[in-house]
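Contributing: when you submit paired examples, paste them exactly as shown. First protein:
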Amino acid sequence: MTTVAEHGGKRAGYARYALDLAGRGDIPVAAGADASLGCFNPWPALPEESRYWPETISPAPGAIDDALTLLERSIDRGAVIVAIGPYTNLAMLERRTAGILRKARIVLMGGHPFPARDGFPNRGNETDYNIQADARSAYVVLDKSSPTLVPLPITVETALRRSELASLRAAGPLAQLIAKQAEAYAADQNYERRYGGGNFAGLPDDIINFQHDPLTCAIALGWREGVKIHELPLASTLETGLVQQRIADDVGRPTRVVTRVDGSRFADVWLETVTSKERQ
């Protein structure tokens, strides 16, 4: 695992802490591209630690080359690379080892090639944080790889619900951490008011957050219940500092794109997976 938009290894420390709660101390973690590089817009701040974490977490800093080497080694071993943040590390790896992304199996959370379906929020291309936070790196990755995209208009069909928190609190330590962070996020973002309450017919009233990253990880692991993936002729361009995407038969490159998900079915699978005692 590599982290991105780092603060001196703080995100790597968080990742290490969560993996240890899950009993996966065997998984290596390396701190990737730091926020100090100046390539991120907006600047990627961290939330208040005391509200999101049960204790002070020690940072796990490291050299960026260590993170890139870990990525390269994973690609060489045939691992599926799942990007659930800005794509900066992958672009830096491509610059260091030209052509490596073309042979990699990559699943990207991000993209906005079509609008959201009726009943779900159409948040707009500019809100696609994973791509637009470092648009230049995202453009490099989209241009140099053959990824599977799990785009924003699909991930907004998923929801973490307040009604699920009791099950999370009653499960293992990682699920309990998720519940704690969900409550803090709900207080900060108030999605129940913004997206619930009948504002969007496709979303539950008690939505706390969208499950952008869990859905992407599940698809990368092979989950296909209620998922449709199509090969679309996708054209990506870099215009006025943003990545723009469109489906274009004449100039688009065939790209695997998730085009449909059953959000309710995914919610059930996710909750069962995270709360299962055997997996804590």
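Second protein:
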Amino acid sequence: MIDRVGLFVTCLADTLFPEVGRATVTVLERLGVEVVFPAEQTCCGQIHLNSGYPDEARSLARRFVEVFEPFDAVVSPSASCVALVRGHYRALLDGDDRGVPARVWELSQFLTGVLDADDAGSRFEGTLTYHPTCHSLRHLRVGDAPLRLLRAVPGLELVELPGAEECCGFGGTFAVKNADVSAAMLEEKLGNVLATGADVVCACDASCLMHMGGGLRRRGAATRPLHLAEILAS
């Protein structure tokens, strides 16, 4: 068992959703894991690589490797960022990744696959529907790890999301460059979310929750977006 991990909090959690980072620490510490936050960490480089700036992304990737190399495991509440590190760093750094990407885990994968802990000691009252984000589903292939964790939470009623595997329309810069298409995809996703009648829509990526949350607020909907870490920390 790994009892000490480095926390990769990501840009979005650091600047907009610090509660997700705090919740991640709460869950890990409750399970007996010591969490270290390297203050030197910065962006993983995803937005740069996706926008056609590989040199800038490479520089950030090198920094990531240097900062997190001392840790046997690195945990992050972002399937999207972890997918970039694990799926692209080796090629981006011409193989000089020092084995770091293989030790980087998305939270639900770390809890169920490394700690073998389906029960995080949580409790949550209410109904919840789960949106499997594109990166968690298709790149990291987290499988049913988030659902296993959610099903173990007393008081939580899990409601199936229609069209769950369809993209919410965010896609990082996709939402900016293809705003009309993104908005149409969001409307379809929100229709499915609201059809469940759930109190909460949950996901493994704050970015997708930000996108859906904005749409829910514009509709005046009562459904709240909450990250998986926030549910598990409750």
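If you have annotations for the second protein, write them as plain sentences, like these:
Residues 61 and 211 are 26 Å apart (CA to CA).
The chain is about 50% helix and 15% strand.
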